[in-house]
Amino acid sequence: GPSADEVLEKRKQFLGPSLFYYYQKPVNIVEGKMQYLFDESGRRYLDCFAGIVTVSCGHCHPEISDAIMEQSKILQHATTIYLHHAIGDFAEALASKMPGNLKVVYFVNSGSEANELAMLMARLYTGNLEMISLRNAYHGGSSGTLGLTALNTWKYSIPQGEVHHVMNPDPYRGPFGSDASKYAKDLQDHIDYGTCGRVAGFIAETFQGAGGAVELAPGYLKLAYDIVRKAGGVCIADEVQSGFGRTGGCYWGFETQGVIPDIVTMAKGIGNGLPLGAVVTTPEIASVLAQKIQFNTFGGNPVCSAGGLAVLRVIDKEKRQAHCADVGSHLISRLKELQQKHEIIGDVRGKGLMLGLELVTDQKEKTPAKAETAHLLEKLRELGILIGKGGLHGNVFRIKPPMCFSRDDADFLADALDYSMSKL
Ligand code: PMP
Questions:
Q1: Longest CA pairwise span in the chain (Å)
Q2: What is each CA distance from 409 to 47, 99, 399, in whole angstroms?
Q3: Of 35, 139, 334, 405, which one has the greatest count of Cβ atoms within 10 A?
Q4: One domain for residues 336 and 310
Q5: Of 26, 12, 349, which Cα lies nearest the Cα of 173?
Q6: How many domains does the chain have?
Q7: Quick one: which H or E segment has residue 375?
Q8: Rounded to two decimals, what is the model's pTM?
Q9: pLDDT single digits (tens) 96-127
Q10: What is the CATH number of the domain that holds 142?
Q11: Which residues contact ligand 1 via a Cβ below 6 A?
Q12: Cα 413 from Cα 419, distance rounded (Å)
């Protein structure tokens, strides 16, 4: 194949200037196999970021690839105006993974589309317009979801008149530490003094992803959901990153907070790399769309449905939830050991294989170690490791590998961090 330089040159010539790359010299990926990626020279990298938390079961997982291939030979597309069994089989399997009355599924093609639809449902169901999301949130790149997104690093969030951003309960950087009730009070105050009292919905990630792997203070969502429901709004969980067993003991991120949302949105890991997203809600909320048409040309097409169904099967068959809990707790303890040794590690957080490592130049002041993080990112790449980076200050490593990531892989990553941090 072409060299990395040639690939980059063509992108510069024909693709938009908003593309951004990791690494001074971007990695040119030609092949993926489970938790590994390979560049054009055949060099192998351990993938700790899974194509931005998307390749849930592993690159080109054989059972999922086979399911996609077989379906693509029989019927690739028909749209929902005709009958085909794949979409129903997939919806049934997905609904079986949801708690409570969350049994009605809509398929779309991405996280942004899922959140757009969730927002529409919340507004139609309540008859209200005002949406509430958390600061530091990322909910998508479409015009409506850009309003929900609250990250100035994006540079072009489109302010929406009816969206309010409230304090995110960040135990490390937030002013109230892990005291969920104080952040909940901020939400209540916003509703009381900042809205017109016509709240349609509240949307939150349980683990803020792009915002820097922030795990919401324990108990926050329970308090927040109560407040929002009392104000007449519905509660939306954005599970685009945290779903499908990644957090270990639970299948969904919201379970770690002991809540049941009214609407759940998902994408990324649902398709192991296929363009696929979904919204799951209750029959009551779904009924607001009953006399209307909610149409999506590609949503739940036979190939994506066959692939998505295979993903659910693989997660169960390979016991990925238990695996994420086991490997995650091993990796967390390795990272906490490193924290004792390396001053630069300000915070180790997360659950399962949904982890964050926040780097600071000063433990007390928590000064973001932005340049050091960028430097370490390059060093890890030299050692054959690709990892995620995020947060408002670009000083958080995001560790969210394919869920086949092993204890040995965790040790390899911890050793590489130890080695490269020792050389800082
Ligand atoms: N929600 C969350 C939590 C996300 O991380 C993302 C993507 N990074 C989205 C929504 C938007 O998904 P997509 O890029 O598929 O539109």
A1: 64
A2: 10, 33, 12
A3: 139
A4: no
A5: 349
A6: 2
A7: helix 370-382
A8: 0.97
A9: 999 999 999 999 999 999 999 999 999 999 99
A10: 3.40.640.10
A11: 52, 110-112, 115, 138-141, 205, 209-210, 238, 240-241, 267
A12: 10
